[in-house]
Design a protein that fits this description.
By secondary structure, the protein is mainly α.
Length: 194
């Protein structure tokens, strides 16, 4: 199914949801459930970022679009998704956030595709941290979880020697740091409001 080019005249989150749904809902319904959950989770943190809140939610919904069978090229979904989004005119920061979601640099190294990931910039910002937080605290079925439960589920699903659990073990300090920073920012925001 062809995807409409992104235009700044359309709602970014709606466009992102339409794109992710068109690529994931039929071939990968569980992945579709996950990205919808990540989008909802990102929405919980969006108010922390003002105008960038919309970007965060869109990145949450699109972060795994590279798993779509028709988009697989390098075999690493972060790169494949980012390249696809670039090809349909997605905003540059959105493309880069998708490419570098959840410490993709470590997994790219294990997969031997670091040079391809280097096409994209890791912005190392609180928005990026919040995207990682949303991904790492959402189950495969779209529900909330803890980072520890998510890591255990991934290891069980793939087996401990698969590249994905190995990447999580290597990236753990960075992943946990992003989750903790975002959690602390959310807690501080709630206490200021309440």
């Amino acid at each position: 199914m062809p995807v409409a080019q992104y235009s700044g005249r359309v709602d970014l989150v709606q466009w992102a949801t339409d794109v992710a749904g068109s690529k994931l809902s039929a071939p990968l319904p569980r992945r579709w459930a996950h990205v919808q959950g990540v989008g909802r989770r990102a929405g919980e943190a969006a108010a922390l970022f003002g105008a960038d809140g919309e970007l965060l939610v869109a990145a949450g919904v699109l972060h795994d679009v590279g798993y779509a069978p028709e988009l697989v090229d390098t075999g690493f979904h972060a790169i494949d998704g980012a390249r696809f989004l670039r090809s349909v005119g997605a905003p540059e920061r959105l493309v880069h956030l998708v490419a570098h979601h959840s410490c993709a640099v470590v997994e790219a190294g294990l997969r031997g595709v670091s040079a391809k990931l280097a096409e994209f910039e890791d912005e190392k910002s609180p928005v990026r941290d919040a995207l990682w937080w949303a991904d790492l605290t959402t189950t495969p079925d779209g529900g909330p979880t803890t980072i520890e439960q998510r890591a255990a589920e991934i290891s069980e699903r793939y087996g401990p020697e698969h590249v994905v659990p190995r990447f999580i073990r290597q990236a753990w300090p960075e992943l946990l740091g992003a989750v903790e920073r975002t959690g602390a920012a959310l807690k501080a925001s709630r206490s200021r409001r309440g």
